[in-house]
Description:
The structure holds two protein chains of two kinds. By secondary structure, chain A is of the alpha/beta class. Chain A contains 15 helices and 15 strands. In chain A, a hairpin with an 8-residue loop joins β11 and β12. In chain A, α5 packs parallel to α6 and α12 (299-318) packs parallel to α15 (389-406). Chain A starts with a helix and ends in a 6-residue tail after the last helix. The longest helix of chain B is centred in the C-terminal third of the chain and has 15 residues, at 116-130. In chain B, β1 and β2 form a beta hairpin. The model of chain B has no long low-confidence stretch (mean pLDDT 88). The two termini of chain B are 20 Å apart. The interface between A and B is medium-sized, with 16 and 21 residues.
Amino acid sequence: MFNVDTIRKDFPLITDTKGTRCSAFLDNAATTQKPQAVIDALVHYYKEQNSNIHRGSYFLSRNSTELYDRARNQIRSFINASSAEEIIFTKSVTEAINLVADSYCKKFLKSGSNIIVTELEHHSNLLPWQAACSRFGAEMRMVPVDSFGILDMATYKAMLDANTAIIAVTGASNSTGSIPPIRELIQLAHLKNVPVLIDGAQAIAHCMTDVQKFDCDFYCFSGHKLYAPTGIGVLYGKKKYLEAMPPYQFGGDMIDQAYFDGKDNIYKGLPEKFEAGTPNIAGAIGLGQAIHFLQSIGLVNMITYEEALTTHAVERMKKIEGVRLIGAQGPHVPIISFTVDGLGVYDISTFLDLYGISTRCGELCAQPIMRRLGLNGTVRVSFAIYNTKSEIDYFCEILEKLIKKYRGRPNK
Amino acid sequence: MTTDETQRRICEIFSNIPDDFDQYNYLVSLALSQDVDFDEELRQSKYEIAGCQSKLWAFITLNNGLISIRCDSDSLIVKGLALLIAKIFNGHTPEEAKHSSVWFLETILSDNQLFSDTKNGLIKLINRIKNI
Lengths: 412, 132
């Protein structure tokens, strides 16, 4: 049984707002707050378990290694990867995508290759591919969206050809919240033997993720949007690709045999090959703890609750004069982007902050899609498991009040 | 009035408005007090100051060797701040502008009151004025 009051008690920053000036945290697409269990896991690790992994023949190091490996297994199970070797720890989704854009492209891009991305992408799933195209002389193809931010699937089909090397697509748009037809995108790509990378940054906390069911070839996400600490991310990759790809970074812990001339160097296997240097051990343990916390609540319960919150917010916001909701109806994560006719997004967000309502405004690290939709930016509200309908009501009341006070002034 | 004197005057005004809400309201009323007929003419990409979270435009010219600045933004708060910057430099020579330091933003607004992107845009505006 999902009880939001009980869940809120697990989040110190949500319940104790003394000094935070935050009475409604509605910027969860940027990052989520952390449950006490995750905070405790980090403190406990540094207080009683801290040691480097894979390095020592002593108890603390062995214990750290075990905790780190356990976290990897928790993530494997959470996204239903077939093997823990397919789970690579990174610092963020951005680093995970950069890893693939660099390493995969080094191995598989040929002269005349093309890479397909969509106009929905966050800069993190756009710029690494632009850099790869520029570096390896490949062509970048963009799947267009319509004025509601819906992907043009006919153009996508037409773009796919024998020279397509990889497709990178968001699991849920950070600017509109819409969920693209991932399964269809993957099926079509696989008909041409083209692998697909899913940027799961916005999807991971709000959708059931089963990489085997999706049959995606790569899936990336950041821990901090999943109630875990910042600085930890995950790259899932099918073993056949990860094994073929060269290392991304070089250094300690990824090498089996190293020589002065480097010619006969032998790298470790998966996953170590892609985890050079001391990793974020505490972050990985924190992510494992966050997953444990979410599983104890029940993912289906969470998703159902968040859908109800989003529907409530959309219905309330539709009734506010001057508010324009961005994006289409349909599959959605709990993200709502909007503008107000006659009022700048920065002003809205700034004044909401004065009432303790945290929102995000601007181009949301997705400038091309903003231009495509003819927007200078939006205000974005995004919900998490600890938000309530009364917080949304409060937000709508204040928004309405601000609009009445400031809208229609001659500044446009 | 020197650029420092204008900044001291602005700081005096803000020190009498201790509440964040009223400070923003002051900036909004400053923005609304401007002539609006010029807006559409000013809102062109050639006048845009990139790097701000909001759209910010500035038309900077020299009249008889003295700086003249007109600003606009899709944010009333940003426009208010840009107008304060314009007030500091208007009527000064490029040489005076070049050697002036702009310190009032840090004084009137607490460090975390202004989004970093917005601050970035305002700093670019200041640099553009200084480099006229």
